[in-house]
Amino acid sequence: MVERGAHDLDPLTVGDRFRLFNFTRRDDHVTYLWILRAMDRLREVHQVQAGAEDVAAVLRELSLAREDVPVPDPAGLRDRLDNLCDDGLVHRFDDASRAGDLASYRNRQSVYQFSELGYRAYRSVENLLGARTEDVNLSRLVFSDVLEDLRALARANRTGQAEQVYRRLSRLDAAMEDMGRRSAQFHVTLGEILRSTDASPDTFLRHKNALLVHMTEFVAELDRYQPRLERAVREVEETGIATALARAADADERLFMDRAERLEDWRRRWAALRGWFVAEGGAPTRAAQLHDATRSAVSGVIALLRQITESRRGGVNRTTQLRHLAAWVFRTPDDASAHALMGAAFNTRSARHLGATHDDEEDVSPGTTWWDAPGVEVSVTLFRSGRAPAAGAPRPVRHDRGARAEIRRRQAEGRSADRQAAARLAQEGAAGRVLDDSDTRVLLRLLTRALESRAVVAGRISSATGTDEGTLVRLHPSDTGTTVRTTRGTLHLPGVRLELAPRTRGPRP
After folding, report:
1. Which InterPro entries match (predicted)?
2. Does the global pTM surpass 0.90?
3. Largest CA distance in the chain
């Protein structure tokens, strides 16, 4: 069973819970599994905390009935229990009362107990090992039980029986969860059967009739109960679903959840149950999705049955082909002929290898093998056809007159704003006021041109000038420097004095 809210866990918590399965990846994972089985047997007789000697005694008892049960030495058993403690499957406690003498008291006397999540991890592994594909089925009898529980829930909510409301909601939630799990397992197993019948069709042919009858009856029962179940869900909602969920939350006996959390949990459960039978916003119900998936599976089974029947009637299928090929390979005179025959049968000789030049040829040594050299990108054209991609004819230029006009308008506005800013700088100067963005842009352009025209005379930098948009700027050497305030901040010009004036047509001074 997948816990509700598992998608809300953060990556750190997910990593801690995955660490509970570390014992399955150890070299002696079978020994760890039998140690956990021994602790589970002690847990069944209400011995929650057990020492290493208790676990060893249970393992010896199990080894009398099964020869494959390992019985590690006491030191190795204690080390393995400590490893399980490090993984979080069990908790370790020091119990001084278990010491019979002074020497035992001085040694470490530890007892071990399953952690809650550790026991769930162990049970999930046991459920996986004990799973049988023969148990999967689509339960068609569950629909009548669900319909009866929905009607009883409506009656209990109408008469105010809180405990009965809680019982019926719990049964409905368990039934829906069981039906979802059964349907998922059935279709996964059916897909595995359809995939593997090419090698062994006998199993499929033996159970084909029962399989088709089972799926057909399930679809028919689902069609018959679907409208009744939808009406029953709406009848429950007409009696006041908010009241029913509140009564279920009050009767819920989960101690470690407050009432608000229990109420929210029951709301999620009812929304999931409602999504099975009532369509919302045009989306198909889960029952309708299960109906379509089962019908598609029936069609797939019939198609595969036709394929197997035709192949058996003709006497040639994949099994016979592989057997004939194996006989031919066995009768070849030498290994080279066998490899040639297998290569021709499976077309392993016609692989096309593609290659291209690396972007930086000096980065890869010429002596590097293809196996160790870094890969390069290969175009789809070269991969599919074996021809290098060509640039092709250039595309015609699209003339967007509206975009051009908009660009020209923006450029004209920008030039007009620069001319106005240059005129303001020439008339008002840069001192004693705060320059806006246009003034600052023109001033920086003037400073750039002036600084580029500076010359060094007798080891000192002389004055410099620059012009733009009808404004003249002069930079004179100064000990005090110049400070200009702008909307974006303050501009400091150390060692120079800034002078702005209108540009004249006469010769420069």
Report:
1. CHP02677
2. no
3. 119
